Amino acid sequence: MASLLITSHNLSSADAAAALRSRLKPFRAAYDSCQRARRWRSPKAAIIHTIHLPMRSLEFNRTSVDDIKCLRLITAIKTPYLPDGRFDLEAYDSLMHMQIVNGAEGVIVGGTTGEGHLMSWDEHIMLIGHTVNCFGSSVKVIGNTGSNSTREAIHATEQGFAVGMHAALHINPYYGKTSTQGMVSHFESVLSMGPTIIYNVPSRTGQDIPPAVIQQVSLIPNMAGVKECMGNDRIKDYVNKGITIWSGNDDECHDARWASGATGVISVASNLIPGLMHEIMFRGRNPSLKAKVMPLIKWLFREPNPIGLNTALAQLGVIRPVFRLPYVPLPLERRLEFLGIVEALGRKNFVGEKDVQVLDDDDFVLLGRY
Question: Would you name the residues annotated as active-site residues?
Fold first, then answer.
């Protein structure tokens, strides 16, 4: 081998020997079976002495509470589906794009309108992460990670901030309900993790969040404000106390903004008419525009949300007519009414570019398993 190296590369015998030594693996003595093996120890960094270690918002989320408090138009974005019940992300991305170009400053992902209650938590967190990844530089992503189980709310909120959401939306424990002190403890458990909007909608939870609870938790630094559905008198009272409020009712949001001092609205109607809702929130009092959109808003909420919205978006051709049960489309009579509403407001003010359709009952897909 040495001669070959010398012949091929004109090396001296000393150089060749050195080259050979460099190729040889060092000799290691065989392991002494009688030698006592050392006990493996976990690295100190992997040892966590507490059962629950709250995630600090600045570790994963650089959004300040003030960045959330200034948002005026937040859309509770719809989640569209494929015929097999999976998320239709292509349609979802199109809806998001239409919101951004029409001036929405934030979106609620997986809220009531987005049917978060019909999702697994894996689906839920995936959609939050997808929204952040694709649109987080253009709009604030607020994940609905609330639950009537404090444990679930904590875990989902940790995951939501870990995938980059800018803020969390939290509801008070519904169905099982709790005491006022229980509400305070529930909200305190999640407010430690990042900017948070509390959502008060007694028509769905069966329990009002009393002003005393809101005033107590508003002292926590991560408290951004309240989505309030209990009317403009309460909104005005909160605003006078320095609490940031968004109206949760599209039919009241004009007066909430310009007469009661609300910062803005978390809107369902803006899924359909984002440009007009932006005008209502940004351009001052406009009673005529308020009156103009009111027939659409009344039509939307004649049945529990999001039934009307799902039907309308399907008729506009921007989502497939696929419903996860227990939601079903509005009846034919209501679908015909929607044609007249679109004509009165002008097709150009609605999302999408296709002509509005009636759709037959057989066009809709209703899914109980997905």
Answer: 199, 227
